[in-house]
Amino acid sequence: MEESIARILTELEEINQIPSTHTQSPLISPSTLLDLQSLLSAADADLISQFFDDLPSKSLSPSSLTNLLSFTMDSSPSHYLLASKVYLSLLLSPNSPVFTLFTPISFLSLLRSLRRAFKNRASPQPEGSPPSNAPPNKKGKRGGKGRGTRGNVRSSGDCSEEVSDCFDIKEVFNVFEMLVSVLGLIHLDRFPDSLKSLVQTVCEIPLMAMEKIVNSGSFNRLMGLCSRVLSGVLRTEHGEMANTAAEVLKALSPLILTAKSQARSFALEFVTQRMKELGNESDGVKKAVVNFPRYLAQKAPEKAEPRALAVDSIMEVVKVMDFEDQIGYLYYVLKMTHGKANLRLLGVDLIAMMLMSLRDPFGVDSEIKIRDYWGTKCLEALIMRCSDLSAGIRARALSSLAQVVGFLSSDDRNKGVLKEVMGLSEDGEERPQCGMNDLLRNRCMDEKAAVRKAALLLVTKLISLLDGSFDGILLKTMGMACSDPLVSIRKAAISALSEAFRMFSDESVTTEWLHSVPRLITDNESSIQEECETLFLELVLDRVSRVGSDCSPQKGSASSDSRLTAKSLEREMELLFPGGILVLLKGICNGEVTPWVKKICTSLGKKKRLKPKVAIALQNIIKTSESIWLSHSMPIEKWTAPAGAWFLLSEVSVYLLKAVDWEFLHHHWQLLDEHGAKGKFQSPRFQGNGYEDEENIESNSVAWAGDRVFLLQTISNVSIELPAEPAADLAHNLLKRVEKFDMHSTEVNAHVKALRTLCKLKSSNPEEADQLVLRWGHQLLSKAYQILEKYISDNKEPNTSNSFFTPPRSGSRKRKRAATMSRLLSKAVTAVYTVGSLVVVCPTADVSSIVPLLYTVVTSGNSDPKLNKLPGPKVSLKQTAPSLYIQAWLTLGKICLADGKLAKSYIPLFVQELEKSDCAALRNNLVVMMADFCVRYTALVDCYIAKITKCLRDPCELVRRQTFILLSRLLQRDYVKWRGVLFLRFLLCLVDESEKIRQLADFLFGNILKAKAPLLAYNSFIEAVYVLNDCRAHNGHNDSKSSQTEGRLFSIRGNDERSRSKRMRIYLCLLKQMAPEHLLATFAKLCAEILAAASDGMLNINDITGQAVLQDAFQILACKEIRPSIHRGAASDTAEVEEEGGDGASAAAAKGRAITQAVRKGLIQNTIPIFIELKRLLENKNSPLTGSLMECLRVLLKDYKNEIDDMLVADKQLQKELIYDMQKYESVKARTTAAEAVASMQNQSVFRSPPCVPKAATETHPGNNLNRKLSSDSKVASAMADAAAEATARSVLREVNKGAMTPPLNSISMPKLKSNQGGSSAKTDRPLNVLESLRRRIDVEN
C-alpha cells in the first residue's frame, strides 16, 4: 500500500507541474484514480493520514488535489465517474480535512459529471484529438511530455475512446450513495448556490435517465436514490427548510408538468408522500407544499392535453393537503376564474376536478347546514364562466359543468342542491347568476360549434334534474340544433333530445322529438341515418311493442254509464296505454312527420330489423280500443281507432306479411265499409251545441277516411297472403266503390293502388296483370267521361232554363236543381281526381277522350275569341266550380307527366295560368306540377324558370315556401342552374316576412350553397347591390317594361331604415360565405365598380337609386364582416381548433397572414385616393352621403391604420387634409347631437301656454331662467361637442401615426367659416314673418 501511495504522489507531482491553460487541463490517469480509490476504500486511518502528511513533501496540498480531481471530473472523456467517486471518498475518509477538500467549484464538477453520465455523448473521436468542446491543442515547450502523459492516461483505462459511450449504472449508484453520505457531513447552508445546483441536477436526472436506463428495476433504484438525496437536502443544517422546500418543488415542477412518464410519477410521489411527511414535522415544508399548486397553476401550459395533465398533477397534490388548505386553494381558484383567459380556462378545469374529487362538496354529510357551501360557490363560478367572452372558456365550462352534474347527480342527496343552485327547483330561491334555461338557450345557439356541442351535452346531463318540466323554447332550440351544419352538433342534439324523450313522455317532448329526429333519415351523414333508425326502433317501435303486448281486448271497464264523456274515455285509454303511447301514435300521423316515418320503416324493413311483435302490438291496440268502446255500450259507428295506429300498421305490414291477421283486417274493413258507405259516422262526443257537433262529425269523418285509406294500404300490402276468393271479392268491392265517385279524395288513391296491387299479385304473369289494370281502368275512364260531359253540358247555358218563364219557376225547383247540380259537381270533381290517380298507376291508359273535356274546363269563360268558338260553357267554371277547375288542372298535369307530346303543347298553358291565377291553392299546385315537369322535361321548362321564380314574391306564404323548397331541391339535384336572375331572386327569401322561409333561406345559403357553389356569393355580390336597389346603371340590366316590373318586384327600394336593414342583412349573409381572399377582392370590386363609378360620373348620385347603391357600398365597406380576421384560430378563443395546432398548420397560417397583409396594404393604398376624390365630389354637390362616407373613412382609418400609415408618411399634405376633415366632421356630428339633446329639453315646454306675467316681472320669471339655462346649455354642449370632435379625430390619427401626436390645428391652414349664430333677429323675426305669410296664404285660399 505504501508503494501505491508513492506512485500516487509521484504522478500527482508530475501533473501538478504541468501548467493549466484555457486549451488543456491536467488530468489524473485512470490507474492513479484506481490506486486512490483502493487507498480510500480500505478506510485505514493511518494510511490515509500518512497520505495527507506526505502531500507537502511533493509540493502538494489537499486543495491542489481537489483541483486536479475537478479537472478530471470535467475533462475526462470516460473516467469522470471514477474521479467523482474518488472525490466523494476523500470527503468520507477518516481524519480527512473536509472543509479544505470541499469547495463549490469541485462540487459543481461532481454534479456536472453526474449529468454527463446520462447525456447522449457525441460520436467517438480519433485518439489524440481534443474533446469536442475544446479547440485544437497548440504546440508548446512541454507539449510533448504533456501529450505523452495524457496519451498514456487515455490508453490505460478500461474503456477506449472508441467505446467512450459505455455506461456503468453501478458506478452511478455508488456515486449517489456516497453523495447521500456526504450530505450528512457537509452543511450546505453556507453554500446556497451549491445547494441550488444540487437540487436542480437531481431533479433533472430522472428525465435524462428515462432515455438511458431501460431496466425498470434499475430505474426505480435510481429514483429511490434521488429521493434520498432530496430528502437529505430538506434538513435544517442545509438552510431554512421553507426556502429549500421551495427550491425542490420549483425544480420538480417541469417533471410534474411534463407528459405521463416514470419521471412524472417519481416527482408526484415525492411531493405527495415524502414531502407530505416532512411537512408534518416542519411548518416551512408544509407551507411550501400548500403553495405548490398555486405555482403549478401559474406555470400550466395553455394547450389542451398538457393543461389536462397539469390539472391532474395539481389535484394529486391538493388531495393530500389538509381540508382547510384545500378550501384555501379553492378560493384561490375561484379568483383565477376572474383573471386572464388562460387562468380562467385552467380555473374551470380545476373547479370541475375539485367538485368530483373532494369529499362532500355540498355539505350533505355535515351536521351544520350551511347554505353557501364551497361546492355551491364552485357551481356558481362554473355557471358564470358558461357566459365567458372567450368561446373556448364557454365550451370548457359547459362541458365541465356537464361532467359535474353527471357525477354528483348519482347521489340523490346532491340533486336537491343542484336544482337549487341552477335555478331548476320550484321551491328554491332564484339566484341572479343562474338563469339556467336562458343560459342553455343562448349557448345552444352560440356562434361557436364547440360551445353548442358542450351546451347540448349539458342538457343531456341535466335531463334527470328537470323532472320533465322542459322549457318550451329550450326544446325548440334543441330541435333546431338537429339541423346544425356540423355533424358533431347534430349528433349531440339527437342524443340530448332522445335522452329527454327516453325519460319523459310529455307531449311537448314527444312532439319536438318527432319533428326533429326522424327527419334526419335523409341526412347526408350515414352514421346519423343509422342512429336515427336505431332511435326510432328503440323509442317508438319497441315502446309500442311493449305496451301493445301488455294490453288485451278483455281489459277495460264494463260500465255503461250514460253520463260517460269522451274525455273520461280518453283518460281510461291513457291509463290502459301508459308511457304516452297515444300521444306518440297521434304525433306519428302528423303531416310533417309521416314522410320521414315512411322512409325509416322502409329502411328498417329492407334491413330486416322490423319484428313481428310490432304489427301484433298495433293490432292489439286497435282491438283493445274497440273493445273498451263496446264495453261501455257505445255505438260502434261512432268509434275510431287511436290516431296513427292504422298508419303505422300500414307501413310495417309491407315487411311483416305473416304477422297481420286477415280476419282482423276483414272485420274492420266490413265495419268501415258498411257504416262509411251509409254516411252514418258521427262525432263520438255527446255534449256541445249543434255547431260543435257539425265540426266533430266532419273531423270524425276525416279520421274515418284516413283509417280507411291506411286499412286499404295494409290489405294491399298483405294481399299476397290472402286466399284467392276473398281477394277477388275485395277487388270487386273496391271497383264498385270507385265507380260510384262519391269517396273522399284521400280514399280514391288508396282504392286505385289497392286494385292495382291485387291485380299484380293475383296474376300469373305481368302481362296478364297489365291487361287486368287496363280493363278496369278503361271502365273507370268511360264512366268518368260520362259524368264530366254531363256536368259540362248542363252548364253551357246556365240562365236559359228560366229566361222564358213568366212568372219564373218556383223556389223549390231552383233548390232541387241546385242540389242536383251540387251532387253532380261533387261526382265530377271525384271523377276528375280518379282519372288523375288512374294515370299515375297506369300511365299507358287511353285518356284521349278525357283531355278535351279537361281543356274545356280549364279554358271556360276565356276572353280569347278563338276559344269562344269552341263548344263548352260560356260561364267560367273558375268562378262557378272552383274545385272542379283546380282538379282539372291537377289531372291535366298528371296526364302531361305521362305523355311527353301532350306536355310540349300544354306546358305554356300551365305557365300562363301560374302568372294570372288569383287562387293561392291553384298556384301552389301549379308550382308543384312545374317542378315535376322540370324533372321530366328539363329542356322544355328551363326557359320558364324565371317566371316560376316570381312565386317567391307571391302574396301567399304557403306558395312562397313551396316554391322555395321545390326550387331548392331542383338546384341541389342540378335540374336548375344558378345562373341569370335566379340567385338574385332567391336573396329576398333571406328577409321574407315569414320566419320559416327565412330559416330555410339561411340554411340554404349558409350550408348547402356554401359547399356546392362557394364562389356564387362572390361573383354575384356587386350585381346584387344594384339589383336590390333597382338601380339600372349596372351592365346586366335590361330596360324593357317587363324587366322593370320584375326589377321592382325583386328589389328593396328606398333609403329608409327598414329597407337599408333588409339589404344589409342580405349583404352580411353573402359576406359570411366568402373566404378571406374573396373578401379582399370584394372590397376592391366595391371600390372599383361603385365608388370609382360614382366619382367618374358613371353612377348618377343625383338619382335616388344611385344614392342608395352608394350608401350601401359605404355601409358594406365599414362593416366588420368584410374585413378578414388575421387572428382566427387563436388557442384562447376557439376550442375546436385548440387540438389541431401543428408546425405545418402554424406555418401555413403565418404564410396566409403575410399574404393577407400584403394584399391589404396594396388594396387600401389604392382605395384612399378614390375616397378623397369622391369626398370632394360629394362636398361640392352638398350631398347627404358625405356623412356616410366620413363614417366609412373613419372605420377604415381605425381598422387599416398600419396600411394607411405607410401611405400617409409619404404624403404629409394628405395626412393634414384627413386630420382636418375628420375633426370637422366629428365636430359637426357632435354639435348636432348636442343640439338635438337641447331641443328635446325645450320640447318639454313647447305645448304649455305661457302664463300671464306683468312686464315688470318678466325679468324674474322662471321661464326666462329656463331660457337662459337652455342658452347656456347649448353653448356648453357646443363647446363639449368641439372638444369631443377634436379628441375623436386626434385619437384616430394618433392610432394611424402609431402614437405620434398630430400637428395642432393652428399649424394647418384652414378656411375661415362664417357663423350663422350672429344676430338674435334671425331667431325671432324670420320665423314670425314666415308664420304671417302662411296665415295670409290660408286666408286667401279660404
UniProtKB/TrEMBL annotation:
<dbReference type="InterPro" id="IPR016024">
    <property type="entry name" value="ARM-type_fold"/>
</dbReference>
<feature type="compositionally biased region" description="Polar residues">
    <location>
        <begin position="1304"/>
        <end position="1322"/>
    </location>
</feature>
<dbReference type="InterPro" id="IPR026971">
    <property type="entry name" value="CND1/NCAPD3"/>
</dbReference>
<keyword id="KW-0226">DNA condensation</keyword>
<dbReference type="InterPro" id="IPR011989">
    <property type="entry name" value="ARM-like"/>
</dbReference>
<feature type="domain" description="Condensin complex subunit 1 C-terminal">
    <location>
        <begin position="922"/>
        <end position="1096"/>
    </location>
</feature>
<feature type="region of interest" description="Disordered">
    <location>
        <begin position="120"/>
        <end position="160"/>
    </location>
</feature>
<dbReference type="Pfam" id="PF12717">
    <property type="entry name" value="Cnd1"/>
</dbReference>
<keyword id="KW-0132">Cell division</keyword>
<feature type="compositionally biased region" description="Basic residues">
    <location>
        <begin position="138"/>
        <end position="148"/>
    </location>
</feature>
<keyword id="KW-0498">Mitosis</keyword>
<keyword id="KW-0539">Nucleus</keyword>
<feature type="region of interest" description="Disordered">
    <location>
        <begin position="1300"/>
        <end position="1328"/>
    </location>
</feature>
<keyword id="KW-0131">Cell cycle</keyword>
<dbReference type="InterPro" id="IPR032682">
    <property type="entry name" value="Cnd1_C"/>
</dbReference>
<protein>
    <recommendedName>
        <fullName>Condensin complex subunit 1 C-terminal domain-containing protein</fullName>
    </recommendedName>
</protein>
